[in-house]
Amino acid sequence: MREIVDQFYGAVRTGDVPALEALIAEDFSLICPAQNNVLSGVYRGKSRFFEAVLPQVFGCVNPEDITFCAEHQIVAEAGEVVVAVAQNNGVALTGNRYNQIYLHIFKIREGQVVALIEGFDTALANHALWGESELLVPDEAAVLSNMTHFTGA
Q1: E strands present in 45-138
Q2: Nearby residues of 121 by Cβ (< 8 Å), 6 or more positions away
Q3: I want to staple 9 with a disulfide (CB 3.0 to 4.6 A). Which of 4, 60, 72, 110 is the partner?
Q4: For residues 149 and 29, is the Cβ–Cβ distance under 8 A?
């Protein structure tokens, strides 16, 4: 499972969308356990991730000025679950540094990421990354019961 996570970060770091697409399952769920932020709640489906979530995030940066997940470290691995921490390095279009640190909990099955819980500093994201961006309405709100999108994946 560690190799899949390393490949995921490599694809994010280099902007290799075809490699990232190959790593994400069709029934993928992104779970952002936060409320009232640009990214909050559950976003279901590979197409939603690539057509809405990624453009929202990458639309706030110039790829020449920032490296998403420039470094990462896997901190735990058990069965289908891998826990990792990653850090960005660079500046967003707001002109502010966006050296975000993410806590990622991956669920991997058959060589693909089926669910990802992403924790991050929402105050930093709101200030440095999002600027005046509109909220990306989630498919479901961020509530504890929606963790079944991870546990049941």
Answers
A1: 66-78, 81-90, 101-109, 112-120
A2: 100, 101
A3: 72
A4: yes
How far is Cα 30 from Cα 134, in angstroms, rounded to an integer?
A: 18
Q: Which residue has the tokens 């409320």?
A: 35
**CA pair distance 43, 29, nearest whole angstrom:** 6
DSSP 91: B
H or E segment and range at residue 149: helix 148-151
CB 91 within 8 A of CB 65: yes
Per-residue pLDDT of the chain (153 residues; tens, 9 = 90+): 999 999 999 999 999 999 999 999 999 999 999 998 899 999 999 999 999 999 999 999 999 999 999 999 999 999 999 999 999 999 999 999 999 999 999 999 999 999 999 999 999 999 999 888 888 999 999 888 888 889 998
- Phi and psi at residue 36, to the nearest 5°: 60, 35
Helix (H, G, I), strand (E, B) or coil at 138: coil
Q: What is the pLDDT of residue 131?
A: 86
